[in-house]
Design a protein that fits this description.
heterotrimer, A alpha+beta (540), B mainly alpha (309), C mainly alpha (342), B: 309 residues, mainly alpha, MetI-like fold, 12 helices, flat, C: 342 residues, two-stranded antiparallel ribbon, 11 helices, transmembrane (chain C), transport (chain C), transmembrane helix (chain C)
Chain lengths: 540, 309, 342
């Protein structure tokens, strides 16, 4: 009784809050048309050093306060940024960027030397940049990164103040995405050297060349603000005057803040998604991110048998898991490379490389295959541990996969739901039998996924090996790199091999449904990297 | 007294040293390395980063370097926030936790004493039952459930106080209330129990017989003598609450130290774990020392210094 | 001033012996301490009710060992029935009729999930379609086990440690207190993470860590109280008479410490249950798919706005257990404490 009345009250309150919020936004509209956006992050800003940023939060903030040669926007399209134009030599090895006139937030001009300095700083080992490997196609990168060669030998040169010439060691068709990432941002040598190892450790100890500049960040606090950068070259198209970021860790709190109008957006979880399915404010954000199971062949010999790997895959109903358990718009994956990441001639990579047997659910067949594989090992039963991280999705995967795999004959699953960092450690040390692993593409090219499963890659935790796969990926990065058609086919074939041999078990493709207040317009979203660009956003 | 105090402070430092040593070596047993995203590192760089943090040296050397650093106020560099000194991380985030903790202690303990005393004085009446049930509810509802309820009903629906965030007194109200439940309940329960005993004792009867007013008896004799267990409990509780509650800070988005601490343990951020442990144990031991001194003040019969025989 | 007592010769005559033989005999049965406590406890109605409730919960918890008596398998996943609200057969009141508010309007969740009309989940289901009632029952068992074991350690080890330290005083006391300080100073979470490394993550390692970190408060409380008690006259008297310290501890100290001990126990139980919940909150609690009241509360808290029943029911069960424990403990305390007068 009591419960039901409180439920009713709840509905009324939600409605009235929505009304109030609507009133609130109306009144602010009628005012001076406040161009303020209130954004939420789920973690603190750990650093603003473009060379050291590894996480989503700093990537997002950096993407809006700094600018590289080019910039990725909606639909993963690349547009000119600091470089107004660029040209590529016929062999694909020399990229020439022509810079526009632009300034740092302190008034210094942004010059070609700033790019040379920034790239050298990222590459040199003493910076210990974790994203330095993105520059691995640049000439002499390996030697510089290992400290065997001076940073000045890196394949980037300034010709005058407004021309940057990059020499690659091998062609890289997706290099245009790389130059837009923070590891390739220009860096103001004067400022970097002035602050030393305190560079970009708080809002004041850095300069910015992007649409906004950072204020109010002390280095450890939960709130920071981006204000319009009046030195920005395209400032007339920047309409927001301020973007307030706040850190909220609790999903329930986030929703309350959104409903009360304190936050302008929220990434919904499954239950919330269900309740806002018909909301006009809902944006279904796809993500170039696949979660999959690694099966540790080094620890469990049974996983050397393709039948065993296939059995694991067939025992899990990916459709059911993504639709009914995650229920946040996540989809059943078609393979390792996520759907919507790349397409050629109107055909999506994932569709083209789709191997049905690699992801389908067939419990009867799974049981049969597993019995055969088990028999071949001479055992009648076995216990495997399942390692997942403690994120909400990780917990759900743990619950579901454990239950699904326990249906296989003679198989007992022990679930280890561990903190995120511990999961990483256990992954690299191989302390798992079955691991729920995830990957988010750094740039919109299938290679960002495909390179993971080559036999020498350190992310290949299951130690699946296939020489044909290795050759195809190598060709795509090497001899076919300049031939888009061939390269595409190499990667498609590689993906097919991976799925036919069940090198990994795809679990789901992540989604992040977002509610965005309808007054907020022009936010650019893209499925990789920093994901959001606010430079053209405005409040209506 | 001065001699006793000097002796205790000496022990305090000794204990602290032992705590530092034990924690340091225990942490070396924790799994994993502190690199936030170690997947994306080449072996050369990984080596370099570890070297940068001094983690490639033998453990005993790391220990000596660490202890030497403490004397210079250097607690190392945080792994969670690159290039932030741990001392800065703590000093910039402990404020909100201390404030919330202090407010929660005040809001909890004072009504707790009143409730407890009321229950004892009106023993076995409806007042007693009422105060008992309220304080039991205080113990039996976890703080995070209380926090969610407060946030949803008082924050979102009634709109009386901010739902989350930090910046001014209004923002502290809900987290303070959520935190105060535990000290409130603890105090009320202990005071009631002790006071029922004390009110039955002979010296209270004597005091009443001497013709002291009821109020005088209660405040001068009964309450004072009921405080021993409360004082014992309150000290560590206060330290616990003031060093931050991850759950409450998470729910109310408070920029406190509690969450950083839990994160530091789960992500093997050794310098932060060490520093917070030191802060925590110093606070704890000072509080314990004060508690022992208060014992003597409250009840002169308690002798701490000499042997009892 | 003084009344004059009139004594007649008759007053000095001996009484009839045969008539008054029993005047020295104790007519009530000779009660031991425990019998006396039990007699007093029985008189306290609310304590008896609380005891009955507790016994019921313990019986239910023990019964949950046998999955066949539960309405559903507590760990059985049925994603079709995920997040269904409570539905009681034949009752059509919002809250227990299988409807909930979704997207602003009240819908029949069971119909939406395509459930047959004979499908009932008394307390609803969780996000995997697991029956909440069955999970609460098994969860109660896990939580009670955690709490009871932690309490036993508290009682056996903490009380002994505290009494010994307080009784001995001087150097022994000093040393023992510093030891407690060291243990208290190392954050519990560090100890937990370490113990999880050594032990297999699971219920027993959680119980062990909770026990390891919770006895210190009890020890400090009993020690403080012992310091006070040992200066009391009756202890002095007992000592003077040459009683052995063990006997003094059991016959004199323990009864007088009982109220403090019982009250502290009442705090150990919820804090053990909450600490277990906290461990689940940070991801190192009871492993999947086992439920505890803590993990249930934790999961429920996340969806409070839309699926409030997922938090309310575990919270209500926990509160009832706690209130029963406390009321019962109050009764026990009154029954045990020699100072309580009737």
């Amino acid at each position: 009784m009591k419960l039901s009345s409180s439920l009713k009250l709840g509905a009324v309150a939600i409605a009235s809050v929505a009304l109030l919020a609507a009133c609130g936004s109306n009144s602010s509209n009628s005012g001076s048309n406040k161009q303020v956006l209130n954004w939420v992050e789920t973690a603190n800003l750990p650093t603003m050093d473009p060379s050291k940023s590894v996480d989503n939060v700093s990537a997002r903030t950096l993407n809006n306060v700094d600018e590289g040669l080019l910039k990725t926007g909606s639909g993963n399209k690349v547009r000119p940024a600091m470089a107004k134009s660029y040209s590529i030599s016929k062999d694909g090895l020399t990229w020439t960027f022509n810079l526009r006139k632009s300034k740092w937030s302190n008034g210094d001009p942004v010059t070609a030397q700033d790019f040379v300095y920034g790239w050298q700083r990222t590459a040199k080992p003493s910076t210990a940049s974790q994203y330095a490997y993105l520059l691995d196609h640049v000439q002499n990168f390996d030697a510089v990164n290992k400290g065997k060669m001076a940073p000045s030998k890196l394949g980037i040169k300034a010709e005058g103040d407004d021309k940057v010439v990059v020499t690659l060691s091998k062609p890289q068709s997706y290099f245009k995405y790389i130059v837009g990432m923070s590891a390739a941002y220009p860096q103001n040598k004067k400022v970097v050297e002035k602050y030393g190892n305190k560079f970009a450790a708080n809002a004041q100890s850095a300069v910015y060349n992007g649409p906004f500049k950072l204020t109010g960040w002390t280095g450890t606090n939960n709130k920071w603000t981006l204000v319009k950068n009046n030195q920005y070259w395209d400032k007339k198209n920047v309409k927001l005057s301020k973007i307030n970021f706040q850190v909220i860790n609790d999903q329930q709190t986030w929703l309350s803040q959104y409903q009360s109008g304190k936050a302008d957006e929220i990434i919904l979880d499954g239950t919330q998604f269900k309740n806002f399915k018909n909301s006009k404010e809902l944006n279904k954000r796809e993500l170039a991110s696949t979660f999959y199971l690694d099966l540790n062949q080094q620890k469990q010999a049974i996983f050397k048998n393709q039948k065993a790997r296939r059995a694991i895959s067939m025992a899990i109903n990916k459709e059911d898991f993504s639709k009914n358990v995650l229920a946040d718009g996540a989809t059943a994956p078609k393979g390792l490379v996520s759907t919507g990441l790349a397409s050629r001639d109107g055909k999506d990579f994932a569709d083209q490389a789709y191997v049905k047997a690699g992801t389908e659910y067939n419990l009867a067949q799974a049981k049969k295959l597993w019995s055969q594989a088990l028999k071949a090992t001479g055992k009648s039963s076995m216990t495997l541990n399942l390692v997942t991280d403690d994120t909400p999705a990780g917990k759900k995967a743990s619950d579901y996969v454990q239950n699904a795999l326990s249906k296989l004959p003679g198989l007992k699953i022990e679930a280890n739901n561990v903190p995120f960092n511990v999961r990483l450690t256990r992954s690299t040390k191989g302390q798992f039998d079955v691991l729920v692993d995830g990957w988010i593409a750094d740039y919109p090219d299938p290679i960002s996924f495909s390179s993971l499963l080559t036999s020498t890659n350190s992310y290949n935790y299951g130690h699946w090996k296939n020489s044909q796969y290795d050759t195809l990926v190598k060709n795509a990065e090497g001899k076919d790199a300049n031939d888009t058609g061939k390269r595409w086919n190499d990667l498609v074939d590689a993906e097919k091999i991976l799925m036919q041999d069940q090198g990994i078990v795809p679990l789901y493709q992540k989604a992040q449904p977002q509610l965005l207040k309808s007054k907020v317009k022009g936010v650019e979203y893209f499925t990789t990297g920093a994901q959001f660009d606010f430079s053209h956003a405005y409040i209506k | 007294m001065a001699k006793y105090l000097g002796k205790r402070i000496f022990y305090l430092l000794l204990t602290l040293f032992i705590v530092i040593t034990i924690t340091f070596f225990l942490m070396k047993l924790l799994p994993g390395t502190p690199l936030t995203n170690e997947q994306k590192l080449s072996p050369e760089q990984r080596e370099l980063i570890l070297k940068q943090y001094g983690l490639t040296k033998p453990v005993w050397q790391q220990y000596l370097i660490y202890v030497a650093g403490i004397f210079h106020g250097n607690f190392g560099t945080s792994f969670q926030f690159s290039d932030q000194a741990v001392s800065y991380l703590i000093s910039s985030r402990i404020g909100p936790s201390l404030l919330l903790g202090l407010q929660a202690m005040i809001v909890g303990v004072i009504p707790g004493i009143l409730f407890g005393a009321l229950g004892a004085i009106k023993k076995n009446t409806w007042v007693d039952t009422g105060t008992t049930i309220v304080s039991i509810l205080g113990i039996s509802i976890p703080s995070f459930v209380l926090a969610v309820l407060l946030q949803y009903y008082v924050g979102l629906k009634l709109g009386w106080f901010p739902i989350a965030d930090w910046g001014g007194f209004a923002y502290t109200v809900l987290p303070t209330l959520a935190l105060a439940a535990s000290p409130f309940a603890d105090t009320a329960r202990f005071i009631r129990t002790e006071m029922v005993d004390v009110l039955n004792s002979d010296y209270i009867e004597l005091a009443t017989a001497k013709g002291l007013s009821r109020m005088q008896v209660i405040f001068h004799h009964a309450l004072r003598n009921s405080l021993i267990p409360v004082v014992t409990i309150i000290g560590p509780l206060a330290v616990n609450i003031m060093t931050g509650s991850m759950v409450i800070e998470n729910i109310f988005s408070v920029p406190g130290i509690g969450e950083q601490f839990v994160k530091s343990i789960l992500t093997n951020d050794y310098p932060t774990i060490m520093a917070v442990t030191i802060v925590y144990s110093v606070m704890l031991m000072v509080v314990l020392l004060i508690t022992d001194i208060i014992y003597g003040v409250i009840d002169p019969r308690i002798r701490l210094t000499g042997k009892s025989n | 001033m003084a009344d004059e007592v009139k004594l007649t010769a008759k007053s000095f005559e001996p009484l009839d012996r045969s008539k008054n033989l029993d005047s020295e005999k104790i007519s009530a049965p000779n009660l031991t301490f425990m019998q006396d406590a039990w007699r007093r406890l029985k008189k306290n109605k609310s304590a008896v009710i609380a005891m009955v409730i507790l016994i019921l919960f313990f019986i239910m918890a023990i019964l949950s060992f046998f999955p066949s008596v539960l309405p559903h398998q507590p760990n059985a996943i049925n994603t079709q029935y995920a997040n269904l609200p409570p539905k009681w057969p034949g009752v059509d009141i919002n809250g227990v009729n299988g409807t909930l508010v979704q997207g602003g309007s009240r819908i029949n969740a069971y119909a939406q999930a395509g459930a047959a009309s004979n499908v009932h989940f008394w307390l609803g289901t969780d996000y995997l379609g697991r029956d909440l009632l069955s999970r609460i029952l098994t969860g109660t068992r896990i939580s009670l086990t955690v709490a009871v074991v932690a309490t036993l350690v508290d009682l056996l080890f903490g009380v002994t440690y505290g009494m010994f330290s307080g009784w001995k005083g001087g150097r022994v006391d000093n040393f023992m207190q510093r030891l407690i300080e060291i243990i208290m100073s190392i954050p519990t979470l560090v100890i937990v993470v370490l113990l999880m490394l050594i032990l297999k993550p699971g219920m027993w390692s959680i119980i062990l860590t909770i026990a390891f970190s919770s006895w210190t408060t009890m020890a400090r409380l009993t020690r403080a109280q012992t310091l006070e008690l040992k200066e009391q006259e009756y202890i002095l008297a007992a000592r003077t008479l040459g009683e052995s310290p063990i006997k003094i501890a059991f016959k004199h100290l323990l009864p007088n410490l009982s109220s403090i001990i019982i009250i502290q126990t009442m705090f150990t139980i919820p804090s053990a249950i909450f600490f277990e919940a906290f461990l689940s909150f940070v991801g190192i609690g009871i492993p999947n798919p086992t439920a505890s009241l803590g993990t249930l509360l934790n999961d429920g808290q996340k969806n409070f706005q839309f699926l409030p029943y997922q938090m309310w029911y575990p919270a209500i069960v926990l509160s009832i257990i706690m209130i029963a424990f406390n009321v019962f403990a109050d009764g026990l305390r009154d029954a045990f404490d020699p100072q309580t007068k009737e």
